[in-house]
Amino acid sequence: MNKLGFRLTAQWCLLLWLIRPRSSDYRISFHFIVVRSNFRAARLGVRRADDMHLTLEFGGGLELLFGSQKKHEVEVTSPDDLKEVTMESLLSWIKDNLIKERPEMFVKESSVRPGVLVLINDSDWELCGRLETVLEENDEVIFISTLHGG
């Protein structure tokens, strides 16, 4: 993949017709060969076929670490070796792409710091499987700090 994130792959396929293109995933089949082009969503503003839309919310003071913005609509790409986005990979993505300052106040090792309540679709992540929780398209993940100064 080059700097622009352009990837050109050829896949064998038994289709002989044009498959309806979706956003940045154009598939044209000619005699068993499919050519697909993908562009990096973050750089070009288009959504790749393997991106997952998530809504992230930060509260209780955590929003200050994210440019004072409480709600973020993001497109997260799963790691290359996995087909799914887990909470562990989401936290890594947040640390690398979203957090503006002091990541140590939000993340400790591969998890959130103690005192941060995590809700996945309004359910406590402790009940969902914590870091192993598999996220799905359009899930809502809320992070709330329960630690306050006085």
Automatic annotation (TrEMBL):
Q: Which GO terms describe its cellular component?
A: cytosol; nucleus
Which Pfam families is this protein grouped with?
Answer: Urm1
Q: Which UniProt keywords apply?
A: Cytoplasm, Isopeptide bond, Signal, tRNA processing, Ubl conjugation pathway
| Family matches, as SUPFAM superfamilies | MoaD/ThiS
Q: In which pathway does it act?
A: tRNA modification; 5-methoxycarbonylmethyl-2-thiouridine-tRNA biosynthesis
InterPro entries referenced in this protein's UniProt entry, alphabetically: Beta-grasp_dom_sf, Mopterin_synth/thiamin_S_b, Urm1
PTM comment: the record says:
C-terminal thiocarboxylation occurs in 2 steps, it is first acyl-adenylated (-COAMP) via the hesA/moeB/thiF part of the MOCS3/UBA4 homolog, then thiocarboxylated (-COSH) via the rhodanese domain of the MOCS3/UBA4 homolog.
Q: Which CDD domains match?
A: Ubl_Urm1 (cd01764)
Question: Where in the cell?
Answer: Cytoplasm
Q: Which GO terms describe its molecular function?
A: protein tag activity
Q: What is its main location?
A: cytoplasm
**Could you tell me which PANTHER family the record lists for this protein?**
RURM1 PROTEIN
The record's comment on protein family reads: Belongs to the URM1 family.
Where does the signal sequence lie?
1-24
Q: Which residues form a coiled coil?
A: none
- What job does the chain carry out? Acts as a sulfur carrier required for 2-thiolation of mcm(5)S(2)U at tRNA wobble positions of cytosolic tRNA(Lys), tRNA(Glu) and tRNA(Gln). Serves as sulfur donor in tRNA 2-thiolation reaction by being thiocarboxylated (-COSH) at its C-terminus by MOCS3. The sulfur is then transferred to tRNA to form 2-thiolation of mcm(5)S(2)U. Also acts as a ubiquitin-like protein (UBL) that is covalently conjugated via an isopeptide bond to lysine residues of target proteins.
Supply the name of the protein: Ubiquitin-related modifier 1 homolog
Identify the species of origin. Physcomitrium patens
Q: For the cross-link Glycyl lysine isopeptide (Gly-Lys) (interchain with K-? in acceptor proteins), what are the residue positions?
A: G150
The answer, when asked if Repeat is one of the entry's keywords, is no
This protein's record includes keyword Cytoplasm: yes
Q: Name one GO biological process term.
A: tRNA wobble uridine modification
Q: Which residues carry this modification: 1-thioglycine?
A: G150
